[in-house]
Amino acid sequence: MNTKEKRYTLAILVNNHPGVLMRVVSLFSRRGYNIDSLSVGETENEAFSRITIVVSGDRPVVEQIKKQVGKLYDVQRVYEMAGEKSLQRELVMVKVSTEHDDRSQVIELAEIFKAKINDVTSSTITLEITGSLDKIQSFLDLMAPFGIVEMARTGITALERGARALSSISFSEDEA
């Protein structure tokens, strides 16, 4: 990522129909935009799904992405989730190689970061951690010397702080 590029989190409310995710992701692909993170799921209203996409770019590129995605047929809203005004979390499962001597260090770090131990074998420990990107990156940096055998990430999911919901944000607020 170059120095002008920043990470932006977009919450996209779409009709819950087959093929909608493919059309949204295809737009990114056709335009040459890279998706850093993607998560999707049904909302509190089964008629809608929420897609959370993290992209890197400069402000004009992100504004262009928001406008282009907003024009897609099944898209109801596109809203940028500002870091300080939103709660953004990711779930990561990581399998760490452990020798008998360093197993207690891995367990101690897991406790400090409030990671859950999901599986233990004679040579690995599988951990689950949820949190902000910074927390997860710090945890992974500390696990790296032990040897990360395998890892799976869910992608960022986000909600705006406060009482307002994505389905209630007006288009004029979207532009602000």
Descriptive account of the structure:
With 176 residues, this protein is an alpha+beta fold. It folds into 2 domains: 6-81, ACT domain (Alpha-Beta Plaits, 2-Layer Sandwich); 88-153, Alpha-Beta Plaits (2-Layer Sandwich), CATH 3.30.70. It has helices at 20-31, 59-70, 103-112, 133-143, 171-175; strands at 6-15, 35-42, 48-57, 75-81, 86-97, 116-120, 124-131, 148-153, 157-160. Strands 5, 6, 7, 8 and 9 form a 5-stranded antiparallel beta sheet that branches. Strands 2-3-1-4 form a 4-stranded antiparallel beta sheet, covered by helices on one side. The longest helix has 12 residues, at 20-31. The mean pLDDT is 89. It catalyses: 2 pyruvate + H(+) = (2S)-2-acetolactate + CO2. One of its GO terms (cellular component) is cytosol.
Note the topology:
Blueprint: E1 6-15, H1 20-31, E2 35-42, E3 48-57, H2 59-70, E4 75-81, E5 86-97, H3 103-112, E6 116-120, E7 124-131, H4 133-143, E8 148-153, E9 157-160, H5 171-175
Antiparallel strand pairs: 1-3, 1-4, 2-3, 5-7, 5-8, 5-9, 6-7
Kindly list the characteristics that best describe this protein.
5-stranded antiparallel sheet; Alpha-Beta Plaits; alpha+beta; 4-stranded antiparallel sheet; ACT-like_dom_sf; 176 residues; elongated; Acetolactate synthase small subunit; branched-chain amino acid biosynthesis; 9 strands
